[in-house]
Amino acid sequence: MDSPNQPKSLSTNLFYLFLLLSTNLLTLFISSTFYSSSSCSLNPISSTTTFTKRRSPSTTDSDGTGNPDTPQATIDLPSEFLAFSSGQVLPLGFNTNFDSDTFYPPVGQACTRFPDELSRFMSYKVNGSCPDDELFAQKLLLKGCEPLPRRRCRPAAQPDYVEPYPLPTSLWTTPPNSSVVWTAYTCKVYTCLINRGKTQKGFDDCKDCFDLHGREQNRWASRQTIEGSLDFTIDEVLATKKPGTIRIGLDIGGGVATFAVRMRERNITIITTSMNLNGPFNNFIASRGVMPLYISISQRLPFFDNTLDIVHSMHVLSNWIPSTLLHFLMFDIYRVLRPGGLFWLDHFFCVEDQFLDVYKPLIESIGFIKLKWVVGKKLDRGAELREMYLSALLEKPLKNSW
Ligand SMILES: *[C@@H]1O[C@H](CO)[C@@H](O)[C@H](O)[C@H]1NC(C)=O
Ligand SMILES: *[C@@H]1O[C@H](CO)[C@@H](O)[C@H](O)[C@H]1NC(C)=O
Ligand SMILES: *[C@@H]1O[C@H](CO)[C@@H](O)[C@H](O)[C@H]1NC(C)=O
């Protein structure tokens, strides 16, 4: 075990991430899908994990039938929501691909649990401008209304948008302030986001990430590998495979997508998932010229089985995630990786006892081969807390992965 010299802001970031997401996500998980008395026990499937259809208070008994199988009362649901999500009859009749003559557009199963929020989200002028409601929409999404229903209106946009910087300049240049609709964020210009690590108190996810000349500049970049370090470098990871065979992949919760930018510089295409937690992460990633994907960690990855060469995730997969969800998520990563593909689990955070009791067996149960496995203590808040990181490079077996 080594002692990585972790900057303080990391724990504060994690703590904030925990706070923020726990309020949004844990409520959902505990109330709907995951019955969990302790977030660090791996609950096997049991009757308590079964989804039970619960009517929202405002619709209770409104159908008057007392039949528990009656679909949630539709009375309170906004008309645009029903217009989108109700069965749509296919104009050409029965379609063998759908095995039906009716199509049901998908929305998150939790959308109808929040009829008031849903009503607000779906209230707009059809064919007109949408409300400027990014923050509100994201909250609804993080509560489990994911995917959000589509809307028939035009999103709030920047009044004085300018074309992005050309590649490769865009990769390492702060985009223009006018590339963002700032309503949802505390900061209203990029200068504020760049300086907030130094000037602002309080917690923010990826607080110093927008400063492309700060820590971002060196992440994963060093040529030399320090034996036993939690910080693997991109080049050492790529060197575990035949040159050129890592071409496409995914970075889960990738901040401002510096990982994707570095991979792009090596001609590797990475899609970066991110929420916009008090920062225009998706705009920033797109402005840099790499691909953002606006999905939370709860959603099934939108890739087909056995297709990606690499999946990376730093600091996001940690002990704030209910372990049953984490188990599903890890299997989803395994699913989308091709045989021989790499899963780079970068700085997985937890406490030593949790690691031995829960996370080590959980990760080992998925079926990966361990190429690298480094456990390091996290000491910045005191050794007595027994906080730790795991950095691992895992490979889906080339043969017999099923
Ligand atoms: C929106 O546009 C569609 C297509 O032209 C039209 O059928 C519909 O009536 C319009 N709705 C409203 C509320 O303007
Ligand atoms: C954004 O606005 C701030 C404050 O007006 C300004 O100092 C900064 O130069 C602007 N940034 C860009 C990239 O235009
Ligand atoms: C990336 O691809 C371009 C165009 O094919 C090539 O010129 C360049 O050398 C490649 N860069 C790397 C790091 O492989």
From TrEMBL:
Chief localization: membrane
Compositionally biased tracts (Polar residues): 57-72
Question: Where, subcellularly, is it found?
Answer: Endomembrane system; Membrane
Q: Which domain of life is it from?
A: Eukaryota
One GO MF annotation is: methyltransferase activity
Signal peptide region: none
Tell me how this protein sits in the membrane. Answer: Single-pass membrane protein; Single-pass type II membrane protein
Its GO biological process annotations read: methylation
InterPro entries annotated for this entry?
Answer: Prob_Methyltransferase, Put_SAM_MeTrfase, SAM-dependent_MTases_sf
**The keyword Transferase belongs to this UniProt entry's keyword annotation:** yes
Q: Where is this region: Disordered?
A: 48-72
Q: List the record's Gene Ontology CC terms alphabetically.
A: endomembrane system; membrane
Q: Which UniProt keywords apply?
A: Glycoprotein, Membrane, Methyltransferase, Signal-anchor, Transferase, Transmembrane, Transmembrane helix
| Membrane-spanning parts | 14-35
Which family does the UniProt entry place this protein in?
Belongs to the methyltransferase superfamily.
Protein's UniProt name? Methyltransferase type 11 domain-containing protein
Query: What species is given as this protein's source?
Result: Populus trichocarpa
Q: Which classification does the entry list for the species?
A: Eukaryota, Viridiplantae, Streptophyta, Embryophyta, Tracheophyta
